[in-house]
Design a protein that fits this description.
Largest sheet: 8 strands, antiparallel, barrel
Structural class: mainly beta
Shape: elongated
Helix content: under 10%
CATH class: Mainly Beta
Strand order of the largest sheet: 1-4-5-6-7-8-9-10
Order of helices and strands: HEEEEEEEEEE
Low-confidence stretches: 176-180, 185-194
Radius of gyration: 20 Å
Mean pLDDT: 81
Strand content: over 45%
Number of helices: 1
Number of domains: 1
CATH architecture: Beta Barrel
């Protein structure tokens, strides 16, 4: 673990030394509700919503040149997942859900005649570390899912160093066979064997700081 940490730090320092520009991005995105469901049989199912809310985070972005950037990104959301599920009889629970995204993103910038405005778009890839709690029985569980995202927005520079960010984004994590949360008897254990995917759209913005 110590060797891995030292290697990660060395890699980050190498990227910093070769980067033409370094930015610190702060995000505050309002996410919308998303419907999710999983049906294996009439006695093994759940359906409900992943509620929206504030998605906040930080990203450190390195620019190879003016048009392209690579960003290391962390996003966090505390929310709820009201679900109908089967537990001998049909039941309803408002689960507590925490999501932590660790992602790497590629960004393409578009510049016009006004150097204080730049548009951008890009793709995010990484993982979503999810923590789920059942308030009815106190059970909880953790799962990690492959995650991806898309974003489109613009930076509006108030000065050379500080800008305001406006952004639309889509975040998704894939729950493939055997990989989903079980919203049921165990409260938050792993076990659902069917397919369900979450898509969460958001609008918001943040701040961007030029460090180099």
């Amino acid at each position: 673990m110590k060797k891995l940490t030292l290697l990660s730090i060395a890699t980050l320092l190498t990227i910093c030394s070769f980067a033409q520009g370094i930015r610190l991005n702060g995000y505050a995105i309002g996410a919308f509700d998303d419907a999710v469901d999983s049906y294996y049989s009439t006695t093994n199912y759940y359906n409900g919503h992943i509620k929206g809310g504030l998605v906040w985070g930080l990203g450190l972005e390195f620019a190879a040149h003016k048009e392209n950037g690579i960003e290391l990104l962390y996003l966090h959301q505390d929310t709820h997942a009201p679900m109908n599920y089967y537990n001998i009889v049909s039941k309803y629970t408002d689960f507590k859900l925490q999501m932590n995204y660790a992602m790497i993103g590629g960004t393409r910038y578009v510049h016009g005649h006004n150097d204080k405005i730049e548009g951008y778009g890009g793709l995010l890839l990484g993982a979503n570390f999810m923590h789920l709690e059942n308030p009815d029985n106190g059970n909880s569980g953790n799962k990690t899912f492959f995650a991806w995202g898309l974003r489109l927005g613009g930076n509006f520079w108030a000065s050379h160093k500080v800008g305001i960010k406006l952004q639309a984004q889509l975040l998704s994590n894939v729950q493939s066979a055997g990989g989903g949360f079980y919203f049921g008897t165990g409260g938050a254990g792993a076990g659902i064997s069917t397919y369900s995917t979450m898509y969460q759209f958001g609008l918001g913005g943040g701040l961007v700081f030029r460090l180099k």
